[in-house]
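Onboarding guide, step 5: your first structure request.
Type a short instruction followed by the sequence, for example:

Predict the 3D structure of this protein.
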Amino acid sequence: QLLQQTPMGQTAAQWIAQRDGASARGTSPDPLHSTLDRQTLKNLYTASESLRDARTGFPSNTNEPANRKVSRSTDVAFDLITTILSMDAGLIDDEPGANQQKALDHLTKVVSSLRQVMDDLKQQKLAFAGLFPESFDLEDGAPTALVRDGLLRYSTLDSGWLHAALYLIAQRFRTAAPALATMADGLVNAPEVDYRSLVSQSNSLLGSG
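The system replies with structure tokens like these:
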């Protein structure tokens, strides 16, 4: 809900402050008070933080047949977006400088890990149209694309969410953290990224999950 209601170009903190003022004046059309929004966002961030893999920063998801520690591209995207919103709302640390630095450290770790995975896929000639793999294996050393039964699965839905999150990072931190923004932009706008081959000619919709 917070993502849907935050206007483009306005940080979560600015939006919450604006809603606080509107609520105090009794002019807010939304019955939910911003305190609830802050608490919900804090809960989301705390939950995502508790799942993070120490080496990659990816949130782990053990809902696998072999009970391996893995992460899906959508999981990573959710964590990245939640981190940005929580940083803007000042929810990561009470001290402003530490609040931003902790967020930047985490975002940089995750984006670096993603770049490593994509570079490895290209070297192994397993990359496909610049898409992120559906899942990542977090069990053995460096992060790798998860292979099940000899197959590497790509999902337009999962990859699309992750590309969207990286686009937000590239735009949000172009001035505040240019090295991070450039790294994220390199994954979004790499020349090989191309979803067009997966678009149905009959209805112009993505034909693969």
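Each response can be followed by summary notes, for example: The longest helix spans residues 96-123.
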